[in-house]
Please model this.
Amino acid sequence: MSELRNPKVDFVLKTIESRDVHFLRCWFTDVLGAMKSFAVVPGELEHAFSEGMGFDSSCIKGFTDADEPYALAFPDPSTFQVLPWRPQTDAVARMFCDVRTPDGQPFDGDPRFILERAVSQCAEAGFTPNIGAEMEFYYFKDADGTEVLDRGSYFDLTSLDYASDLRRDTVLTLEHMGIPVEYSHHEQGSSQHEIDLRATDALAMADSIMTYKLVVKEIAIKHGVYASFMPKPMNDQPGSSMHIHLSLFDEEGRNAFYDPKDAEGWGLSQVARCFIAGVLEHAREMSLITNQYVNSYKRLCSDGLAPTRIAWTRSNREAILRVPMYRPGEADACRVVLRSPDVAANPYLAFAVILAAGLDGIERDLELSSPCEADMDRSQAACRAYGSLPKNLGEAISAFEESSLMRQVLGEHTHRFLVRSKREEWDAYQSFVTPWERDRLLAVL
Model:
């Protein structure tokens, strides 16, 4: 078959033989970002590369209904990795898949395709996105409660941090799978941790985040504990974020966000300023993607560490977008950090809408407001320029539903599914009587 002439396919087939791989797991996500998988044996792989593997797409949230239950999964050979936590005899490997329709066309509801389309639009504009991610999570004794493993805090390196070995094993496993890690440390909350991934292209980073989440959980299970990516699992502890570091590089490989002659001293180019303005302008409507659950808004409104102001800053924690100044004057270090997304977001869709919002700002040459800094006289006006993030999922649904940009970047199919699915979630939550209400009202009313 012609695909076998692809050196990446050849590499996969040779590695399967040399590494004693007996199971190939085909990975993809549903629209909400839940990992889906089925396994094929090596003898079926040539067929999978050339013809795809059929599956019932009506079983996947956001894909198709029972009247159109057919889809094909085509493994991406560039994502082949042997799973290091599985036995190395009769080994198991994985590949991410592109989902297509029975006639071989990209499926509109495939989150990976939606991101690929957004990256292609960036390329048409002359840019290549470079994305990194800081992701937080909690370790608990088990999945039935929130009993923590330690009472450590930010950057603790003491006997309080019982999870050092878990983080170590997680980092080593990620690196064995070709995913470079920049940092790992204890976070602010009790038993809360962070592992940061080194920046790469958008699609590889989204794949890495999905792998990261599974690795964290698998290593936790091996140690007899449970890892959770719930945005806000405890009332009295901080929520878990996914800070997204992003820059654009031009066709010559230069950082298009960097301008050493920036008169205001930020090192930001006009491209960067327009990109930031676009992200801020569309922040409310894309909040349903970056913060997609009812619980997401408990993090954004309660702990004081999560940003709520749609503004940009150097250091103000209330602003959703920060321009870090760790290495001023270094072109490659110039970037923006979007701090509002939580770790439960689907990274494919989150990256797609963020890139689309920033690109819209560049194409329209949007003017950027003043930064929202605590020590500036004009700070209050700057912080009010774009308003605040939605206060709950209901507000987020309304902003998302009315957004032509969200409909354009996600496609009508995915946009419609998300509105319907999230409205069902919000309505179910609204009708649920919480322990908070019973504790305060049952005995007195």
Q: What stands out?
A: The radius of gyration is 22 Å. The mean pLDDT is 91.
